[in-house]
Amino acid sequence: WGTAELLPLFTADNTALLLNCVQDAWDALRGMAEQLITRFPTPLPGLESPGTLLPVLRWSLCLSESPRLREAEAGALVLRTIFRKYAQEMGWFLTFAPPAIMGPSRPYGCRR
Predict the structure, then answer these.
(1) What is the pLDDT of residues 29-88, one digit of tens each?
(2) How crowded is the C-beta side of 99, counted as CA atoms within 13 Å?
(3) What is the pLDDT of residues 86-106, one digit of tens each?
(4) What does the alpha-carbon distance between residue 84 and residue 64 come to, in Å, rounded to a whole number?
(5) Is the distance from CB of 46 to CB of 16 less than 8 angstroms?
(6) Angle at which helices 69-82 and 50-64 pack, to 10 degrees?
């Protein structure tokens, strides 16, 4: 039997779950989540286009600016994963310059 029919691991829901686990308070869980997400196919399920990746990119940048160490590390882990998956493996050009990350609202509750 094929494991794909029994346990669909590489799904958009699991991508979102692992990205959220990256900001958990436990170091071990954060590290494991990062290891798992790097083993997901490229592009990450649910983040196949620039439009779907942009909110995650904004969220991770927002986290990386946090004065809280756990949040800043989580943002850095997600940014590193995005860079590896999309810039290195897919050859995408990622920009952090306005207007790409500027907007009236902060995604995922980020406040500045």
Answers:
(1) 988 999 999 999 999 999 999 889 988 998 999 999 999 998 999 999 999 999 999 999
(2) 3
(3) 999 999 888 765 544 433 344
(4) 17
(5) yes
(6) 150
Own/partner contacts of 102-111, CB < 8 Å, gap of 24 or more, are 103/58, 106/58, 106/62, 107/55, 107/58, 107/59, 107/62, 108/55, 108/59, 108/62, 110/58, 110/59, 110/62, 110/63
Task: For residue 55, say if its preceding peptide bond is cis, omega within 30 degrees of 0.
Answer: no
Q: Which amino acid does the sequence have at 40?
A: F
